[in-house]
Structures are given as C-alpha cells and as structure tokens.
Predict the 3D structure of the following.
Amino acid sequence: MRNLLIVLSFFLLAALASAQSQPQLNLMPMPASVQPGTGQLPINQSFSVAVTGNHDASLDREVQRFVAQLSRQTGFPFRPKSGVAPTLQIHADHGREAVQKLGEDESYELTVADSGAKLTAPTTLGVLRGLQTFLQLVQITPAGFAAPSVTIKDQPRFPWRGTLIDVSRHFIPIDVLKRNLDGMAAVKMNVLHWHLSDDQGFRVESKKFPKLTQMGSDGMFYTQGEISEFIAYAHDRGIRVMPEFDIPGHSQSWFLGYPELSSGSGPYTLEGGGMNPIMDPTRESTYKFLENFIAEMAKLFPDAYFHIGGDEVDGKQWDANPKIQEFIHAHGMKNNQDLQAYFNQRLQKIVAKNHKIMVGWDEILHPDLPKTIIVHSWRGQQSLAAAAKQGYSGLLSFGYYLDLMWPAARHYAIDPMSDAAATLTPQEKSLILGGESCQWAEWVTPENVDSHIWPRNAVIAERLWSPQEVKDVASMYARMNAVSLDLEWLGLTHRSARLHMLHRMAGSADISALRILADVVEPVKDYNRWSDTKGPIDFHAPLTRMIDAVSPESDTARHFSDLVQTFAQSGYKDQAAEAQIRMWLATWRDNDARLHPLLDQTSLLQEDAPLSQDLSALGAAGLQALDYLDKGQPAPDSWKTQQLGLIEQSKQPMADMLLMVVAPVQQLVEASAGQAPHN
Amino acid sequence: MRNLLIVLSFFLLAALASAQSQPQLNLMPMPASVQPGTGQLPINQSFSVAVTGNHDASLDREVQRFVAQLSRQTGFPFRPKSGVAPTLQIHADHGREAVQKLGEDESYELTVADSGAKLTAPTTLGVLRGLQTFLQLVQITPAGFAAPSVTIKDQPRFPWRGTLIDVSRHFIPIDVLKRNLDGMAAVKMNVLHWHLSDDQGFRVESKKFPKLTQMGSDGMFYTQGEISEFIAYAHDRGIRVMPEFDIPGHSQSWFLGYPELSSGSGPYTLEGGGMNPIMDPTRESTYKFLENFIAEMAKLFPDAYFHIGGDEVDGKQWDANPKIQEFIHAHGMKNNQDLQAYFNQRLQKIVAKNHKIMVGWDEILHPDLPKTIIVHSWRGQQSLAAAAKQGYSGLLSFGYYLDLMWPAARHYAIDPMSDAAATLTPQEKSLILGGESCQWAEWVTPENVDSHIWPRNAVIAERLWSPQEVKDVASMYARMNAVSLDLEWLGLTHRSARLHMLHRMAGSADISALRILADVVEPVKDYNRWSDTKGPIDFHAPLTRMIDAVSPESDTARHFSDLVQTFAQSGYKDQAAEAQIRMWLATWRDNDARLHPLLDQTSLLQEDAPLSQDLSALGAAGLQALDYLDKGQPAPDSWKTQQLGLIEQSKQPMADMLLMVVAPVQQLVEASAGQAPHN
C-alpha cells in the first residue's frame, strides 16, 4: 500500500477547521449590528419581492440582478408572481444621486423573520447594500434553502472603499472588469479606481489626442462609448468610477505620440527599460495640452474625483535637462520636489476648473495645495496622519496591495486608523475617508486577474466597511471561503481559472498530483518576482507558469500549520492530530514519484521539478521526526543537522515560488531533537 | 490510519488507462486519412497565420476565432505580425454558399512540418474544418507547445451531422446555444436542429400570430432579431440551422392562443397532463393558418430544410371528435394514420411552395408523399432502410438520444449503415444522409445542459464524420477526454458546472466526500426517471438534485471495472491491480462516515443517504472478498448469500441513480466464493 498514490484532499482539513469555529453567519463584510432571532425564512419556488417607496429603473435592474443571483445560488428558476404576499419587502425613502457622491447614505435595515423579510433604507443605494446581505444570508439547510431570522442594522465605517485596477501594464477587457464590479458590489465596495495610463500603455480613447492610444498602446484600449456604458454599469451597482492618469512620472506611453510633453529627447517605446521619462513641467505647452485633455476626460468621467497619480517621479530627466534646471533656479525653487509641487499646483487649478477634486499619491502632499485635495497613501498611515494634521483628507492603500501576494490575514490586520493615525484627534480622523486595495498589473492577464483579486479583496472590503473591532482571523477565513463560492456564481473565475491553467500545464485531464504540489506553494512575495527577472519585463509574454496559477495563499499550508500547532500544544500526544499530519506528510513524500513523469513531459512544468523533490524530502523528514517523537527518544544530532540543511534549502524560492509547509516541518524536526521550536 | 479519510482521485486510474493506449493524436472526429511524419512544429509567441486564395469576412472572423482559441489553449497572447513567414498558411480555392447547402464541400488537406503548416481546401468551409483539426493537434510537449508533423486528408463520411436541441420543455437562452454551436463546430458537426415548439412551450416570435408566444410560452422565447443573428453566428461556424415545429401532435402550446387549431375543446395549459391535444387536419382554416405561419418562418429560417415533426400523434382527440371521424369516412380513409398522411400531403405542398424540403419523423413515411422529403428516424435503422427502399432519404437519431443517459460507447456503437441498413444497395445507401444526436429537454436547465450534451456528443460527431472502421473504444475514450478539456476553453461548462452544483448541494467548499459518491453513480437510464415521477413533470421545478449534477457516465466506475477485469484475468494474482482495487474499496467503505454528517445538513442531499450507505457496504464486501481470495480458501456460503443480498439491493435505483460499481464488486464476491462470475 505504501507506494500507492494517495491523494488527501485539501478540503478535509478545511472542513475540520470550519467545524471548529462553526455556526456564524457567512456575512462579509460583517454588518455593524447583527441580532440573531429564532427560526428561519424558507426560500423556495414561491419566493417573491415587492418594492414600495422610492422606485426607479436602476433599482428595478438591481432587483432583477438580485433575483437572478438568488436563482443561480439556489437553482430555483423564479418566475414573476402576482397576488401573493412577497417574501421580501423592500422600501427606500429616497432615490440616489445621478452621479454617486462620496458619503451618500448607504445604510439599511434588514429584518428576517420566518414569515417574511423586510429591507428598508433611507436611499435606494442602501437597498443595494442590503440586498447583498440578504443574498449572503441564504443557505442550504436540512429543510431547504432559508435565511435565518435576524435583525441587521448596517452602515459603512468609511465612505470610500475602493479597488484600484491597473489596466496599463496588462490590458483587462471590459467584460472582465464588469464581473469584478459585480464582485465588488457583492462585498459592498463603492469605488473602482481605474489606473488608465502608465509607462506601458495608454488605455482611453481621446478624441482630441488620438495618438495617445494609436501610438501609446498595443491597440488595446477602451473607446469612449465603452467607458460611458461601463460607468453606467458601475453606477447601477453603487460603484463610483474614478479615473487615474498618472503624471508627471509613469507617463512614457504619452510620449510616443506626443514627445513634446517629455523632459527628455526620446525615442520612447512601450517596452521601456532604461531611464524613466517624465513630463516637462516648465513648458506652457504642457499645461495647454493637459487643459484640453483633462477637459475631455472630465466630461467622460462624471465622478467628482480625478486622480493624477504623482507618484515615483524619478528626477533624472529633470536633472539632465539644462532648461529645466534653469527654470528651477529662475523660480527660486530648491529642488525637483519643488518643481513637482509647482506642477501639481498648476494641475490642481486645471482639475478644479473642470469641477473635479484632485486626488494624488503621497508625493503630492505640499502645503501650497488647497485643502480640498485628497492624499492617497501607498506609503503608510504616517502619510495619512501627516496629511490630516495639515487638514488634508486621505485614503490608505498601503497594506492593501493585492499584487504583493500577501495572505488575507496580513491585509486584514491593516487598519487605516492604526499606527500613526491612531493618535489623531477625532476631527483629524474624520479626514481619513477609507482606502483602496490595489491590483497592479505587472503579472496578470485577463485569465488570472480574478484569482489575484479574489477572495482576498473581500477581506479588505470588510476592513473598510465593518466596525474596527471585527477582526477575528478564524472567523474571517471561514466567511471569506463562503463568500468565495458565492462570487463564482456571479461569474468570477478565481477558482475555476486555476484548474484550467493546471490542465493546460499538464496537457491532460490528470492534474491530481499537480494539485498536491500547487496547493502547498505560494508565489514569492513583495517585489521578489520582479527582482528575479533579468532585464525589463516582457508584458506580452504568456503568464502560464505554475506561479501564475497558484493561489497567493495556500489554504493547505495554513491548515497543516494549525494541525502541527495543535499537536505541539498537546505535548506531541494528540493522536488524531498526529494521524492527520502523517497522512499529509506521506502524501507529499510519495507525490514526487507520481508527478515526476508529468514534469518531464511538459515545458511548462519542468522548472518545478526541484520544488516537487523538496516537498517529497520534507514529507520524509517530517515522518521520521514523528517516528522519533513516538519513540520518545531525541533524534540524533547528525540526523537533525542533515534535515535542517534540507529545510534551509527548501526555504529558498524555486521557480519563483515558496514551499509553504517548511516551517511546520522544521518545527517537528526540532521537536523530535528535543529542541524548543524557533517560532 | 484506517479510519482516516483517504481520497483516491479518479484521475489516477484515468492516467493509467491513457498510459496504456498511448501515443495517438487527440483528434476527434478522427480524419479520413492521417499520415504521421517526424518532428513537430513549435507553437510560440511568433505564431502567425496567412490566408491566400478565396477570402471573405466570414473566413476572417473564423481565423480570428481560431487564433483566440489557440491563445486560450496555450496562454500565448498572440499579436498581429507582419513581415514574418507565417506558421500556418491557409488557402481556399472557392468561397462558401451564402446559405450553407447540404453536401457542400467540407474537405481539406492539412500538412504540418517542423518548418510550417499548410491548410488547403476547395472551399472556405473546408478551411473551417481543417482549422479545428489544427487546434486539436496542438499539445504541450517537453519543448513547449507544438503540433506534430502529419499529413491529413479529410472529408466527412455523411453530409448531415446534427445535434437536435429541444428548447420547448426547458427554455435555453441564446448564449448557451451559442457556446454549444462552438462545441459542435469544434467536432465538425454541421446542423443544429432547433426543436422550437412542443406541448410545453412555443419559443419563436411570430409577428403574424403573436399569441403563439404570448400565450404559448412562459414568456421565454426568441425574437426574430435574435434568431437571425443566431443563424448568422451558426453560418460563420459552418452550421446550418433547421427549425422544427412539431405538428399535428406535440402542439398543445399552439392551442392556448389559437384553440381553433385543435381537434378538441380545451381548455389548454402549458402544464399539460391528461389528453394529448392534436391539430385538426379536417378544417381548411388549419391550412390557412399554416400557410401564413410557414411563409413567415420560411423567410426567417434560410435553411433549405423544414422539419414538421409528425411524431407520436396520439389519435384520441381525433377518435373523440365526430366531425373528424365523419371527415375520415367521407374521404375514404381507413384510420387516423391515413388522416395524418392527408395532413402531411397538404403540409408538404405548403412547405414546398415556400421552397423548402420537408423533414419529419418516422411516422410521416407514406407512399403518397414525394420522394424529396426526408425521413428522420427515432425508431431505428429499419425505418431508414424501409424509407430508402422506397426512394426516400433518411437521417438517424435512434441510438443518439443524449437524454437517455447512455454511456458514450453505446452511442458510438450505433452506425447509420448497420442492421437493416447494412443490406441496402449502394444506391439506396446513398440516401442515408447522416444523423443527429438529440438533446430532449425534460430534465435540463441552462445550467446543466452542456453536461448532458458534452463530451458524449463528440463521439456521435465522430461516428458521423469518420470512416466506419474507426471504432476502437479505448481510443475513443482517450480522445474524448482530451477533447472535453478543449471544449471548456471554448466556454462550455460541462465540467465546471458539475462542481458548482455539488457546491450548492453541499452548501460549502468541502465537496471531497460528496465527489467520491457522485463519481460512482449515474442517472437512471432511458425513461426511468420519467416513469418514477408521480404525475406530470413540473417544468419549472429546480433541477438541483444529485442526479442533475452527475455525469451520465461514471469514468471511475468504468476504470474500476477495467481494474477488476485485469485482476480476474490474472487469476486474481495481479498484486498491483489488487492494491488499487483495495484502495478504491477502502475509500468507498470509509466514505459514508465522512459524508453522512453533510447529508443530514442539506435538504438537497438527504435522499442520497441510502446510496452512500450502500456504497460503503459494497466497499466492505469487496475488501472481505479480496481477503478470502488472498487466503486462497472459498468464502463461506452464508457470507456469500448475505453479500449477494446486499448487492441485489444496491442494484435498485436510489434517488433516481444507479451505483455503477455493483457489478465488479459482485464479480469479486462470486470469485471469492469459488464461483464463476455471471457476466
């Protein structure tokens, strides 16, 4: 039996984990107030909705979408009913703003009793939020689908809860963005921050400056018609769309068509490399261009906010340009920072003239700018605190970068009001408007972008909506996993695409051994994939390696680590835990023999061979450690030294991935040698 | 370790099976002639296509779709190239007919060498077929994606290769139909037979007779605009669209709006039940109506063929109507069959007047009809033979009913030229035009319809395209499984929807134990689900039971049965086979303990408890049988009797499903008792 191929499903431990922290409602974000009742409201074929009070076409479409999603979740083909008492009564006192405003009332109350449910809200925007809560309440039970009796009173903690999606480095088609809007609405996010231009591509049609896309993109961009339709789609879901055009840095794509905007001499390519070109803020023609451009874009994007980027201005081109240096001295400026501040002041006036409020990254903070602007921090809460003390509003994205491949718990622990922001006065705190997750697009394609955003984005959504005290990590993971399934019913592909990609790599239907490996690795963190890339990134290369398919966070590794902790806390006596640990270790030990033939057959997997071998060796080491622990005699030093050598080797990234079960195996090895674990 | 939860992936055995019947090309349908070469053509980022010869917008769209699908399969984001030698050269001598004709040339030649590939065809229709072959040739290899060197000369065996999709019983939205057209094109099918009306719903907008959909449907139907766009979509893919309006039976939906067409007095409902209403062929007003209606539909549907149904005319309403009986006698007819023949003659004239060729089911065959009509046989090859002997053309659907839940091999074994048709003269044989698979829609929803059609439909496609000698079953299964993966890249959901449905039933992410059970059951066969339904079917009930999610054919059971055969052929000595058999049996034995808690928690799974218990008992019985075999002493009679009782019980359908591993377990039990197996 030993050398048979045993596959232990990762779900086994997921089930055990969720059984431990059981019966809570699978709501994410957790509402401000939840009062459980008794009994439940059956959801069956006779389900119906009635709307009273304020009523408009947008709400009607929302109710239709709500019914369609409930139908997908439950499988009931609901049909229009008449003359029956509605299962769910909806009442809104007022309608919504034609252009959604920051701080518009999103509150609602939802009461579910066994006889019916009632959703009331001051505005139809609140109804949107409440309907998403209702969808999350519906669960399968022994008596059929039902929503538990409950009284929920809910409103967001922060008025600005966004997701930034970079569509410059890799173009993301409108239909993919739309399903992500659906996901955002499901977790009550309300801003799409659309990062529309960067060095690698300009993605918005400009009728005034057509060369921006003609020369500044690979042909993939959004027409103005598509953008207007997309904004309407977002508005229907209670989501504002804020455009970002990142200047004066991150703007190489502008210069292919309009090199006169640049501080250097070019030539410019979208492939990049070399110097970071930046705009020339000393020429009046630059402002003339921006006046015309921003006027056009201000009409296209109805949102009150306009993000001008302003980050990471690499001053080399300014330093190298004598005319620019002369300008700096002639205007009594001290340095490039002062020049950027001058640029931002000019820019802010243009933005304001178009009735927009300027938003920019940390670097734009400068006392010469009016207090109306918003500072968007990628650097940390201290930027927000510094801004707030000077009277500026702020948004946090530090800690919410989805592309850094952090586990959900790490994002979840970041609070806009913590650290430096915690010491602010209440009035200063009120200037902190919320935050945004960021999906930077160096390493995503339309195929895998969903899996980089979801389900972790739901956790950031909760941080920004729910009360600050909601922070239990075990509860978060259980609820995130439930919401993750619901999101696939909406059409997101964060789970399904991963399987497709593994099938592609394997070139066959048999991906069981491949999944064993893929389930215990994670992509390298932070910018390590980038720094491992020799030379500039090829933004048109396929992203079809294992790193592109695996989850940013290994559930299996987390559960295995929990198992080892349970075992350790029992003084290595808990036999049930040990048996499960052995099962995993044996699975891993034996997996390389299964997987190896496949790895040789396909070019997409060859680089993963050392990873598979190391996993196998870790499995064997862990099993030996358990044998020593069972015997109750310390493992020999020579053995321990050898195993720790293997463990150190296994900690190194391979194929840009990390084996996430190294630490718990190390713990077992050290324990078996009678040594207190390091961590 | 015993009671630990071991999950043995079904893929394990799939891999073993495919390793045995290895290196063949994953082509389905298998081309008429395949000459393997040496070497392979690399497919990488520089892939490009050039078209010479005949060139039109439809071919350009096809090439775009081809490149998009190749991009999805390989993950390469192909970009337009210029000035490079094309990887694939395409040349068509001629264009296509504006309305695709039966028998239009679909042949092509495809040569792949390591330096490039060339696809030539007499018509652009042949190019469509050849491009699908090229897509199937591309595989991942140790050196990257590549197509093997090969010379293929291909043309279809039959000119009519269709899929009937019933959209009356359950409405299927256009987008779901479109992805099924994509699937049909991938396996070179060329007719969508659109079953547009039946008792339960009339699905086409008629401007002349709007009550057909207003009263004769639940509000779900296709507008004429949608239909025209859909036909163009099909034409682009080389697929004709033939409408069917089933009369004079199967026509209750017509009578809600137009009761004057009926032979009885009504009232009529879509829910049905009771008598089967049929049209009144004795009134001139019926023909007046049909003249107007068919004239309208003949314009809407450009195809040269028009299917009038004509099946299963239940004469009770004719018998019960004195006027109709009087008409029969007055016209010297003998019975209802003569009356239907009269109706069909009148109908045929109307159809012909609109420049269409009438097609109908077996029952329309009557010597008074002109030889131009086509007999579509649901009854068997003898109908085709009888028709051919009288000079009528024929199509076979007997044996190709996908809704009967047969295994792929059973459909595969049915040949239009076998049985009674095998004895025809060559000239008579030439009247057999091909066949159609049939997806009748009593038990499908838009959610699971793909999984009822695919991948089995690919096997019927092969039967109708490939030479008659292509019939190796092991090869068929290996190639069908490969094609099945490709079809999901096209957007079909036959694999993914099953997982979604299991998640819904479980109400959680943990479906591992549920899959163990779901992977070894099949829906009851033929019309047994129907006959188990007490009273009329509720066509608006949810289809969310396990029977609705499981595959019509259990791969696991097939592989397990193969394993047991291998073991038996070794005289029960093959230790490797025995070890694998034991692993499966232990998995099943232990599965009920895992699954039981879940079954109790959700109403959608409660009915499956006996099934799970029986699977567990079968696992235990099989293991005991192996123990006896290992000991080399016959199992006691009392034990055997008890086990065979269990086995008989397990053969009964439970929750409308069959446990497909009963027979091989029975074989083990009988062998252990020293008895030759029954089968």
In short: Residues 1-22 of chain B have pLDDT under 50 and may be disordered. The radius of gyration of chain B is 27 Å.
